[in-house]
Amino acid sequence: MFRNLIIHSFEVTQCNEIWSFIRFVMSSIFKFSLNSLLSHSAFHSIRSFMSREIHRWYSPNLNKEMEIVVYGHYGFALLMFPTAAADFLEYERFKLIDTIGWFLGEGKVKAFSINSINNESWLNNSMHPAHKALRHQQYNRYIVEEVVPFIHNHSKGLVPIITTGASLGALHAANNFFRRPDIFSGTIAMSGSYDLKSYSKGFYDDNVYYNSPVDYLPHWGDNFMLEKMRKGKIVIASGQGDYEDPNASRKLSDILHSKGVNHWLDLWGHDMKHDWPTWRQMLPYFLSKFN
Asked: Among 22, 25, 165, 242, which has the highest number of CB atoms less than 10 A from its own CB?
């Protein structure tokens, strides 16, 4: 019965009071269990049993050396996009990797955390907006033409790839999935804004349009890609506490509903801020619902 309830949660279009209460109870139980686990000394020894490798190569798309860290040995691939202008080790430094250690150690998930170039695009105030948008497109090509083949080669097969990220990383994670659902199998987007115009500061061209999900998705007319998208596992999550913008997630959810794309919109409580404690609870919770 519980399994059927979780599967059904991907299909609901509106939360009624009963489901909201059940979600609150189940989330509270999970948060308590996670906090207990993090406080247990045995949990901190998980990393010693978990494979960790750092790789780097010179990217022809970006004309610079790019690093990637791989955690785990088996399972579907979790492609992790950093927040803001952070690097490929950010999720490790902020202990999010620790919270998904069980999934990595058990071979449920294999995580690939990459560098961002946000400080060479939308977060660089000295660049012309057109150049920022162009750099963003170069990053997209780096993901598809370099990172994805690396993941398949490292995994010795065409494993499913789920994208994930928080804050600006959520935009990259969701955008890469929506643009290429033929390559990626889903996304877990946490605390994101999916309107690139909030970063482009008034500048708008084709490169901005095609990287702003709330702009291009309503007009998406490729039925092949839409069918691929509808088969994906999509989680759009946000807290409702300080510095969160749950309306950004609601807006994206409304667009997905209009296109017949099943997804899980999950808005957490007003105590869940736009910060690492929120994402350390969210990501393992959602991974626990994936088969």
From this structure: 165
pLDDT 10s digit of each residue in the chain, 291 long?
333 333 334 443 344 444 444 454 455 544 444 554 444 434 444 455 578 999 999 999 999 999 999 999 999 999 999 999 899 999 999 999 999 999 999 999 999 999 999 999 999 999 999 999 999 999 999 999 999 999 999 999 999 999 999 999 999 999 999 999 999 999 999 999 999 998 998 899 999 999 999 999 999 999 999 999 999 999 999 999 999 999 999 999 999 999 999 999 999 999 999 999 999 999 999 999 986
Residues written for the chain: 291
Q: What is the C-alpha separation between 162 and 151, in angstroms, rounded?
A: 11
β-strands 109-114, 76-81 pairing: parallel
CATH code of the domain covering residue 138 = 3.40.50.1820
Q: Is the dihedral of CA 165, 117, 212, 151 positive or negative?
A: negative
Alpha carbons 193 and 196: distance in angstroms, whole number: 8
Phi, psi at 179, each rounded to 5° = -70, -35
Q: What are the backbone angles phi and psi of residue 28, rounded to the nearest 5°?
A: -65, -40
